[in-house]
Structures are given as structure tokens and as C-alpha cells.
Amino acid sequence: MDSQAVCRRLRALVLTGSLLAAAAATEGGTIHYCDTFQEIFEATYTAEPGDEIVIAPGEYHVVTPLHVTASNLTFRGETGNRDDVVLHGNGMNTDSGVTYGIRVAADGVRLHDLTIRDFWGNGILIGDTSSYANDLIISNVKTLDCGRRHVMGYADSRVSYGVLIENLWMEQTQEYIQGPGGHPVNNVGGIEATNIHEWTIRDCVAKNIRDAEGTGQAAFLLWNGVSDLLLERNVVVRCGHGIAIGNYPPPDSHSHTLPWHAVEGIVRNNIILRRGESADDRAMELDYTMDFEVFNNTVYSEDASHLWTLRILDDWTRPGQTTNLVLVNNIIRGGILDQSTGDWSPWVVADYWGNIVDFVTPVLPEWFLDPAGGELHLTRLATALIDQAQPLWEVPDDIDGGPRPAGAGYDYGADEFASPMGDANYDGCVDGLDYNNWSLHYLQAGGWPEGDFNSDGEVDGLDYNLWSLHYLEGCGAGVPEPAALTLLALGGLALIRRRAATVKP
């Protein structure tokens, strides 16, 4: 399954490579241009605060872990395309040599526009036993085949402030080997962090991250000290475990939010597709939380009878019981495991709080574009979901950045049904205005509003094809004559050729 099948939306890049570089580099900082791993290694270890490390396109074998200790450092690929620069280890299932990719233990670091892959342990480490990292930005990065965590944040009892992780693509493409000579069971995951404050994680994708038995740590595991969290517009596809706010063991003495795992946060506009295999664990869990708002998420189990699609947990014998948890406008296909001191039965979650829960209202596959392919945008058949939800000022847009409401009312789940394929400006009509959006961003990184309709991260000719195939859809006009479509296609091809001649390969 390729990226086109996951979601038609990888959001527009909030920070492009050039803007990030300009914002991060302070006056007088040195720019280190690197085209060998030795140069990357030396630049990382000799950099001064405010420097910039720019890596030429290529694949670089990481033979010694990279350790960033200079504050306000920018570490980026040269082209802005994260596929052009690859830092790789010895392999996800090879425990010899370097076991992790890069560690960031300084404030104000910018890490973007590159790929980190093939490490036995963690791809990116945030902090170490003596220091954490604040004001870190990880943007437009891809992590592949990391045997423990794709991103791991931990520093004993210290707290990390103001981290932004956005547009991170995490994927496991290889079989995970465990047992004697291999990895421990249930020890692979996406982003894990403890003791964090004012973190934002948005527009990320996690695919197929699970161990050989189908289980694993969560795609997003945030626990043991979480405060003021924003987790939004992320997609989880067939991972062993989806989103976990909190964890089964109560928080320990290192947590800054005792007696809770997590205090204050918003989880909104996320999509989770849980495999039907019984080995797969919870799609979402909320353990030992206080003052959390969970709005407009689509949590879909291929096996609708799975009782652990959503779990809510605390312990009546100790402090830290679930307090002021609000669940509204979510779609939950599957069961709810209520292991808390409150009443979070499917009927209460559905009728009292206002959610669509499969055990009360059957959630049908035909309500979604392609559940088997991980595409959980709504279709016109989802009449029980469209225009039926509660208006929430806390959720002004949907997973694609489109406005809410788009129709007569608000929709349930992460997607606000409105725009046909090719409708870049969300006006419900695929027309020349959308073509303008596409042409202005041709061969640039972007998202749906810029014309990236197939969600591969780049505005290109494939997106033009999708636009042309849906031209005038939703406009209240007849289907254009074939000759008109031919002229449009010729115009698009001419533009492609003209632009291609002026852009470096």
C-alpha cells in the first residue's frame, strides 16, 4: 500500500525548508555544507549556537551516532525534499554497530527535510539523562524501519517545553524480528515522550508499526507527565497500538503531573485505522487523565466487535482518577473498554456525550471512501454523520484544514464532508480557481490547498490528472465536452514542460 492510499491530505507544510533555515540561523552563524558522513559528523560535533548544517542529496551511512548539543542549530537537507537526503543505519533487525540515528540535547534546534531509517533502536532521540530539549522543531522528516521508537523523548525528571513535531512520516516496511537474537516483544512504537509541556504533534502519519505478533507500543505514546498537549490531524494506519494518552501503570515519581499521567490537552481531528487481527491492541486509550478534550476523531476497527477499540482507565484505590474528560463528535467503530471509576459505557459515550459508537449506532464501511486502504474520509452515504454533530468552537477545521461547518451543520469524526477531489479552495466546485492553486505551487511541496490531491507531499502532474478528471464536479454544471477537457489537458502538459525546463532535477 503506497502513500496515496493512506489519506488524501498530508497537510501543507507549515514551515518550508528555506523559511525554517532563515528563522533558525542567528546573525553570524556558520553554514556547514556537507556531502559526506564524515563532514556531517564533524559539523554536528563542532557546531556553535546558531549554526546551520546543510546536507547535499545522497545516502549517508551513520557509523557513529549524531549528537546535537549546540542550541538554535538548523540541521536540514539541502533541497527541501525529505527523500533526497537519507541517513541510515545497519538495519532495523541488526543489533551490531550504531543503534540510533540522531540525538538532540539542546534548545531551539530545527530538524527538517530528510529521512532517517534502518536503526535497531531509535531514529530520533530527544534529550538524554542530563538534559532535555526545548523549542525543538521536527518538520518534513521521514523515519523508516526503526526497531524501538521512531522518535523518543526522555530525560529522567526534567521537563521538555514547546516542542513542535509536524509532517512526520513514520513507517515500518520490513518484518520485525523478535525473540532470541531479535527484538523484545511489544517494544516498537512511533513517537513516545514523557514529562512534556506545551508539545504540539500534528499532520503526522504512522503506518504498519508493530511487532511480529501484531502488537507494539503506540504510534503516539505520551505519558508519565504530559501537560498542555495538542495532538491533531494525525493518521494511524494498521499499527499495533494507536494513540495512548497515559499508560497502564500509574505515573511514577518522575512525572510533573502527579497523580495523573496527563493534565490538560486537546486530541482532535485524528484518524486511526485498527487492523482486524485480534493481536492488534487498542486503537485509542486515555489513562489517568485530567481536563482532556477529545473531539472529532475517527477511530475505526476493521473488526467492529473488538472490545478494546477505545479504553479509559484509572484505579479507584489511588489518586489520579479520570477527571473532566470530554468526548464529543467522535466516531468509534468497535467497543469501549471502561476500566475507570466513572461510567464510560458505549451508551453513555454515545447518548450523553454525543458520539457515534458502533455498539449503539452501527458504523458502516460504505460511509468511508476506502477503509481497507486507510482512507476514512466521508462519502455521501454517511448521512448519519454529515451535518449531525455538535458545533464546537474548539474544532474550527477538519483533518484537511477545511472549514467547519462545510454544510448545514457540523460532521462527526475527523473529516468534514464537502470538497470533491480537486477542490483545492474548498468551495465545493472543481474549477479554474483550483487549477490556479495547483499551477502556482507546481513542483513544490504542499498539501491539499496547494493542489497536492494524492497526498504524496508534492504538487505535480499526477495531481493535475486528478483535477482534470473531476473538473466541474460539484459546480452545478454539466459535464464538459471531451474537447474542452482535451484543451485543459494540453494546457496542463504545456505548463508541466515549461516548469520542468526551469527546475533543477
Structure explained in plain terms:
There is one protein chain. This protein has 505 residues and is of the alpha/beta class. It has 3 domains: 7-207, 3 Solenoid (Pectate Lyase C-like), CATH 2.160.20; 218-418, no CATH class; 432-502, no CATH class. 13% of the residues lie in helices and 29% in strands. It contains 6 helices and 31 strands. The protein has helices at residues 17-24, 37-46, 346-352, 432-440, 461-469, 482-502; strands at residues 31-34, 52-55, 58-61, 66-68, 74-77, 85-88, 102-104, 110-119, 124-126, 137-146, 149-153, 160-161, 164-171, 189-197, 200-202, 205-207, 220-232, 235-237, 243-245, 262-268, 271-274, 284-287, 289-295, 298-301, 310-313, 326-328, 331-333, 336-339, 356-357, 368-370, 375-378. The strands form 2 sheets. The protein has a 29-stranded parallel sheet that branches. Helix 5 (461-469) packs antiparallel against helix 6. The longest helix is centred in the last third of the chain and has 21 residues, at 482-502. Mean pLDDT is 86; it is low at 1-26 and 477-505.
Helicity level, as a percent range?
10-25%
Unreliable stretches (pLDDT < 50, length at least 5) are: 1-26, 477-505
Number of strands: 31
- The CATH first-level class of the largest domain comes to Mainly Beta
> What is the overall pLDDT average?
86
Subunit organisation of the chains: single chain
Structural class: alpha/beta
Count of alpha/pi helices = 6
